[in-house]
Inverse folding.
């Protein structure tokens, strides 16, 4: 088990900001991101002590270089955001990301196969990537894209991810029709118990959003708004002017 | 040169529907598409005589099986829709798609590298995939994702795609903040002349949209609305009730 040290029931507001920062994956995945933005993003991660930066595969090497020697890890999404690559391509993409310096891999499961009822393909797809990621000493999160799934499909996806050796289940890509909800996080935590981590991602823009996810059972938060979330918690005036709490 | 036989100046309205159908890439790329939907999609392509079906890599083999022996080709998008994979992964993904039966490959260029001014990376990335695709007897289209680019970046992207051996330039993924516009198609046709094809894609929902793209210089249309576009042209009452022409 290598997921976050935060327990599902932790409530952060009264704790230090660094506890919240340490469970944030600082995320920058837009396709038009430039090298200069990656540099700024990595500097922010160092400054605030985020768990990880999440960047697309073509930026893995630069990010690993910029974060070398720090505690901030490099994470890369695989088959992102559609999940509709072949297992063979997913494995190779994960292998390359690890070679370039990533240590966390967030793969999108084969959503179409899940919706077609092909549980065997979904499980083998995850297991194939899991083997590669764990051989390379990395950690694997499996993105369900919950907004596209029925309740039953969400449950099955969590079970298959667990059976196939994933380290985390994760709600959303942030590119789908909806993001993380506290209900989905609670459901996923309910299925995986303390065996896997749960990462909430997609649409988490405020400190209130982030804390609701942690309270629902998330052990990691994926967001591109990590800096403003921390500023929101550290600045009462900022909080009251933004969302009224 | 292996792009469509339609000349840039062709105007289709008075011609047979089959001419329009033969320049449509019948597209189904949502991540939650099921096997049953792929079967229906391929049957539609056979019925209407579309140029190609466009499906995600995990459906290439099924589609190639269903369309075997017909004139409808199988197309697969690569590094889709973000384009932010490494060149090495793009090459392997393209190679696998060809092996599974695809003969047309639509790759997304490295948008972030283009926006970072790294023309060399963008060109080498396209050339790397071009080598693989042409070795395998396929045709390569390069997606610019025009909605994310400045005018200058669109021009440079067309020049780099041409220099790197692409067969087509293509406007959009359909997953970005905007789709094809007649202005962008005309611009792209202006740069590539008659050396490359131009594929208009993203947001093309009606016969009027499709015809505007052809008139602007497109030689291929990527759309998920091909069937209703053809029905719109063949049914005057349907046309008048939809867009008033």
């Amino acid at each position: 088990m290598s997921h976050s040290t935060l327990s599902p029931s932790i409530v952060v507001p009264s704790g230090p900001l660094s506890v919240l920062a340490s469970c944030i994956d600082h995320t920058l995945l837009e396709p038009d991101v430039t090298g200069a933005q990656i540099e700024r993003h990595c500097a922010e991660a160092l400054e605030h002590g985020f768990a990880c930066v999440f960047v697309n595969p073509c930026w893995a090497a630069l990010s690993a270089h910029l974060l070398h020697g720090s505690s901030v890890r490099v994470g890369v999404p695989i088959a992102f955001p559609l999940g509709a690559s072949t297992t063979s391509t997913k494995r190779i993409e994960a292998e390359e990301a690890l070679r370039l310096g990533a240590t966390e891999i967030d793969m999108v499961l084969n959503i179409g196969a899940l919706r077609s009822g092909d549980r065997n393909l979904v499980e083998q797809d995850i297991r194939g990537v899991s083997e590669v990621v764990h051989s390379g000493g990395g950690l694997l999160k499996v993105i369900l894209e919950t907004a596209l799934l029925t309740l039953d499909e969400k449950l099955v996806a969590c079970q298959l991810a667990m059976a196939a050796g994933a380290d985390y289940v994760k709600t959303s890509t942030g590119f789908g029709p909806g993001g993380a909800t506290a209900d989905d996080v609670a459901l996923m935590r309910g299925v995986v118990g303390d065996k896997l981590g749960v990462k909430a991602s997609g649409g988490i823009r405020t400190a209130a959003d982030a804390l609701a996810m942690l309270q629902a059972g998330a052990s990691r938060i994926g967001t591109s708004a990590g800096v403003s979330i921390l500023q929101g918690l550290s600045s009462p005036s900022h909080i009251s002017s933004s969302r009224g709490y």
User: Anything to note?
Assistant: Residues 119-135 of chain A form the longest helix (17 residues). Chain A has a mean pLDDT of 91.
